[in-house]
Each structure stands twice: as C-alpha cells, then as structure tokens.
Specification:
The chain is of the alpha+beta class and about 210 residues long. Helix content is about 15%, strand content about 20%. It is built from four helices and seven strands. The strands form three sheets. A three-stranded antiparallel β-sheet has the order 3-2-7, with helices on one face. Strands 1-4 form a two-stranded antiparallel ribbon. Strands 5-6 form a two-stranded antiparallel ribbon.
Length: about 210
C-alpha cells in the first residue's frame, strides 16, 4: 500500500527532533584583579560578640604630618612642613661686680717709693747680743728689708746688709724686728703691704 506509507513518512518527519542551532560562544571573563593594599594595613577585625575587644589601628612611632585620608600604596607622600621655632632673645650673663680699687691695691706689694705714706715704727724691741759678740764688745748695724702688711705686722724679713764683724748679729737683728709693730703704708687713703728698710744697731756693751 504505497499510499499509506507516505503518511507514515510524514509523521516520522513531524515527530523527529529538530537539530539545535549552535549557541553563540561567550568569551571568558578576565580574572579579578587582586585587592589593592592600603597603607598602613588595616588591623584584623575583632570577632563579633566580644565586647572586650577594641579595634585599634597600629600606632606608628614616627609622628604623622598629615591628618587627611590615607592614600593607597604607591601614592606620592605629602610634603613635610618644617616647623618654625620662635627665636628666643639671647640674654647676657650678669657681669661680676666690679672689684673695689682698695682690694686691687691691697693685692699688690709696693715699694716705699710707690706709696703715699711710708710705714713707720711704732714699737720696737732691742736685739739680744750674742754672748761671743758681747764678750768681744762688737758694735755694728744690720740693715733688714721688712714686708709690713696692711695690719702693720712684719711678715717677711730679708737681710740687705749683714754684719761684717759678727754673722750672729744678723739673726739677732731679725729676731728683734719680728716683735716690732708698724703703722702700715697707705696708697690712695688705703693701707697696703709695703717693703720697708730698717737698721738695727748693736751698740758697744758697757
């Protein structure tokens, strides 16, 4: 029956699945860029539900020069601003008080020709004759140079011209002058130390 076969072929064509059209190819998406790092790195977040944990940013030992928002890594840093320190006026140290002229004059030792008033002998003690000189009845004069201090006391004694007849007379003369008292020399109305020459006589023993 050729007539019946045609419908069957037609039905077969109707029920046969049609071939799907090829889908348009979608290009793959580029890989996601890694997240940019921030400076300074953020501190890890504290777990939720822990009231005792406080998120704190890490402190930097160096002082920050800008309070603006933090830039990303690689950003150009802001220029530092130089701190201006106010100038402080220099103060001069106070100068020491001026030394009085009297103290300066007293620190110097004068000669008898350099003072206004020379020393004078107030009290004197006679020298003691050495026994040998007294036995031989030696008479002489010993000249001494005496340093009279501002208080009128003999502090240093030198022999300018000793005895040519009896050397022991030099020591006896110096021992006697050490017990003398003087009025001090004066310079500009102030007592000053001064060298003064005195002669100690050794008269003949009676």
């Amino acid at each position: 029956m050729p007539a019946n076969e045609e419908p069957a072929a037609a039905g077969a064509d109707a029920t046969a699945p049609q071939a799907a059209e090829p889908a348009e190819a979608i290009p793959p998406s580029p890989p996601a860029a890694p997240p940019l790092a921030t400076y300074p790195p953020a501190a890890p977040a504290a777990p939720e539900g822990d009231p005792g944990t406080v998120n704190r940013e890490p402190t930097d030992s160096a002082p920050r020069t800008s309070t603006g928002p933090r830039g990303k890594l690689g950003a150009r840093p802001l220029p530092l601003q130089e701190a201006t320190v106010p100038a402080v006026a220099a103060t001069e140290a106070p100068s020491p008080p001026a030394t009085p002229a009297a103290n300066t004059a007293a620190a110097r030792i004068y000669l008898a020709t350099e003072v206004d008033v020379k020393p004078t002998v107030l009290t004197q003690v006679a020298p003691i004759y050495p026994d040998d000189a007294a036995t031989r009845k030696v008479q002489d004069v010993v000249v001494l140079q005496v340093l009279v201090d501002p208080g009128g006391r003999p502090t240093t004694i030198k022999v300018l011209r000793g005895s040519q007849k009896e050397p022991l007379l030099d020591g006896a003369a110096a021992a006697a002058v050490r017990q003398w008292t003087f009025s001090p020399a004066t310079k500009a109305g102030q007592p000053v130390p001064c060298w003064f020459n005195v002669g100690v006589p050794f008269p003949p023993v009676k």
